[in-house]
Amino acid sequence: MEHKHRAGLDSKDAANQAKCYGAAVRLLGTREYSVVELSGKLQRRFLPDVVDGVATELQALGLLCDTRYGEAFCRSRVERGYGPVFIQRELDQNGLDKELIETLLEPYDEQWLAKAIVQVEKKARMHKSSNMLSSEPCAVASDNSENIHAAEQCDLVQSMAGAVIGDAATDKMLSRDQQREAWQQGQKERARIARFLARRGFPAGVASRAINQVMQATDQ
Question: How does pLDDT run along the chain (220 residues), one tens digit per residue?
Fold first, then answer.
């Protein structure tokens, strides 16, 4: 098919198309590309008409495929902890149509909350609160040990919720102003984690549920 496609070209055009074809194949040898993404890279070196011809040829040969690219992209970004908003935006920018994007994301619909929870737990490990209100350990359900350690969960709850953790004597030692300050600090931490999830591409509703679920797990 390659030779038939170039049969009607003069020697110069055929040479340019051959070079473009070779460059495209080398790029595709490293990873999957969308048609728009690959064409954009090739147009830095070759004329648009030449690139369009090569892209059409590669699609006909099955070497260039938006669906296969989208599947690989989704799998990679989900494994790296990104949410549907981020993935949808990137796929749209790389030329995939809305219907295809929806089809590609559909298999992950039931996974977003669990993926967001993993990110909340990771954030807890990376950013332990420096404003601990009590040195008393939090009670954590033992069956949650697969996600994060008890101490890390305790840090997360204290930083996000700003709750006054401890026995009655400790509660009495804290003034109303201290409790208010702790609550405000907790809200700031919660908002910080919510913004982190938003940057990772998780919808606000999913982010809120993930944060709440991690907090509730420590109360069981």
Answer: 445 555 555 677 789 999 999 999 999 999 999 999 999 999 999 999 999 999 999 999 999 999 999 999 999 999 999 999 999 999 999 999 999 999 999 999 999 999 999 999 888 777 654 444 444 444 433 344 444 444 444 455 455 544 434 444 455 567 888 888 877 877 888 898 999 999 999 999 999 999 998 877 655 5
**Two tokens, residue 167:** 């026995």
CATH topology of domain 67-108: Arc Repressor Mutant, subunit A (1.10.10)
Residue ranges of the domains in the chain? Answer: 2-64, 67-108, 112-219
Q: Using H for helix, E for strand and C for coil, what is the string for 145-190?
A: CCCCCHHHHHHHHHHHHCCCCCCHHHHHHCCHHHHHHHHHHHHHHH
Whose structure tokens read 């809200």? Answer: 187
Q: What's the pTM?
A: 0.71
